[in-house]
Amino acid sequence: MILTQRQLEQIFKQNGQIVIPYRARLTPSAQDWIRHNKIKIGYDEVKLDLQQKPAPPGWAHLNKQYLWWSDGPDGVSKAAIGMSAREVMLKPMPILEDGSRAISAVRTLSHAIAGSAASGGVIVAKNPAIACLIANKCTNLRAVIATSLAGVEEAVHTIAANVLIVEREKWPLSPLKNLLVRFCKLDRKMDRVLEDELKTLLTPSTYSQQKPCCEGCAK
Length: 219
Known about the structure:
Blueprint: E1 2-3, H1 5-15, E2 18-20, E3 25-26, H2 28-37, E4 41-43, E5 66-70, H3 75-84, E6 90-92, H4 102-114, E7 120-125, H5 128-135, E8 143-145, H6 149-159, E9 163-167, H7 173-185, H8 192-199, H9 204-209, H10 215-218
């Protein structure tokens, strides 16, 4: 079996990771894609179904999947994520580095969004302020802390927020599940007036001096 880059992207979008049969080989473009995105490949006795399947009912509005990560044990949050995954495309994040640090999750999410493998993500953290600060350092991430459903909806509709930061052990099960589903289903928009106002905070020279914090931002 010879796998192409497009097929690897499909596997990654479906499963959040790449596991292929032992004797499978990759095309040169597929190998370049793996190296560029720093994705680890697993091998096992698996059968791959690479046929495009129609989206389940209620998923027609979703183009990509959302990735999630938690920095510690939290049964309620993970239960809410599991329940939400029945309605939206929410997959565990394949951490490429130290899986205990938010910066690793942010880098992984930034790479996934830059490579069109995800539309956004959910980060469950003990200290949401730190996670939010790190995420907003990436130019392709716009993070918002989950303070309320109304606040999250406003952030999605005004700044096109694509990363939801949830404080660990803070939310009850049912409200959190509803929040996650709503966040993934909302159409993202950027308020033009607000966008113009944000640009005035930095001069052109300051923009030119900024350095990307990761490869996802460099794109």
